[in-house]
Amino acid sequence: YDRAIEIAFEQNVNPDPYVVNSRGNCYASLGKWQSARDDYLAARDLFQRAKGFRGEGGSTTQRLDGAIYAASNAALMLVQLGEEQQALREMV
Questions:
Q1: What 8-state DSSP symbol labels residue 13?
Q2: What are the contacts of 29-38 at 24+ separation with CB within 8 A?
Q3: Number of C-alpha atoms within 13 angstroms, CB side, residue 50?
Q4: What pLDDT digit, counting tens, does each position of 5-25 carry?
């Protein structure tokens, strides 16, 4: 995942938000909660800015479904970091 993200930056394009979210999953599996949260928040933002996906009407659409999953993952990392109240605020 690191290399894929690095290549995207070298090419002056945004990395694929699924790749960033997946790296967050790896960090979470390793117990690196803050690194995972950082990636989930970055993925959320990337999903919201994504273009090139076609909606039912044929127009380009953001990937808000992915943004919701990434934001939820980020909030769950707050629980792991002991910040339950902030996690609840982010989830609501």
A1: S
A2: 31/80, 33/77, 33/80, 33/81, 34/77, 34/81, 36/73, 36/77, 37/74, 37/77, 37/78, 37/81
A3: 22
A4: 999 999 998 899 999 999 999
Amino acid at 17: P
Total Cβ atoms within 10 A of residue 62: 14
> Are the beta carbons of 53 and 45 closer than 8 angstroms?
no
User: In this predicted model, what pLDDT tens digit does every residue of 27-67 receive, in sequence order?
Assistant: 999 999 999 999 999 999 999 888 765 556 655 556 788 89
Backbone angles phi, psi at 69, to 5 degrees: -65, -45
pLDDT, residue 60, reads 57
